[in-house]
Amino acid sequence: MKHYWWRSHLRQLPELGTLGQFGQFQEADELMPFLTTTLGITMGSRILDLGCGRGSFSVRLAQWGCEVVAVDQSQPMLDVAAEAALRRGVTVEFRCSTLGSLPDRSAFDGAMILDFGAYDDAENAEILRTVASALRPGASVIFTFHNPYYWCREPTTEHQFLQGVDVVRRRRFDFSAGCVVSRIRCIGPTGERRDLPPARFRAYTLPELRALTAAVGLADLRVFGEDREGRPQVEQGVDNLSTPYFHCVALRPVHGEAGEGI
User: What's the confidence (pLDDT) of residue 2?
Assistant: First the structure.
């Protein structure tokens, strides 16, 4: 599993153009075993995809027979997602909204936030609190974010070729804010260049993460690393220095109120 960095950058664009192709169904297929096993997804499960991007995960879950509510604040990305659902003959409830304003309460059998940490601390807490109250008691949320123990060591530059576009991504760690700062340049087939709006990803330490989840009413926090292909490692303990991203699971307790605090 990879951290879906492109969502946070593209979410800031008024139009996507050729960049709307970022995020393919192969990524969703690679993650599906982890999602279905960890969340206990079965046919008919009601799933929340918060910050859904172009909807590849939402559409795949709908194809598996789930009832999916997919939320993003980017209407251009939701338009791409709706087209994908239409082409594949599935129904997904797409909502254009800020991620912390979900009105549903105790309505979902599972939830996922695949680019958690893309906002400031108060907004990140509000997003988790919203998810906690939207889950049914005993249901879980999966969320993934940058591992600060990995990214704080040195700046990195990564070059990828994605769907005909050269993507150069530079990341550095802002120690004062505990954030990974990401900048992206896209070079098209004819040489045209486009610099995307920069993005900042809050990289929580494990003590910060435990305090945050407890404060919003989530419990039984589990943290996984990943293998070299970016797939979550469920069977092994976390190696803080070798895994770029943390993959976390927490649940709404059966007893007591969720979504309180902070």
Answer: 56
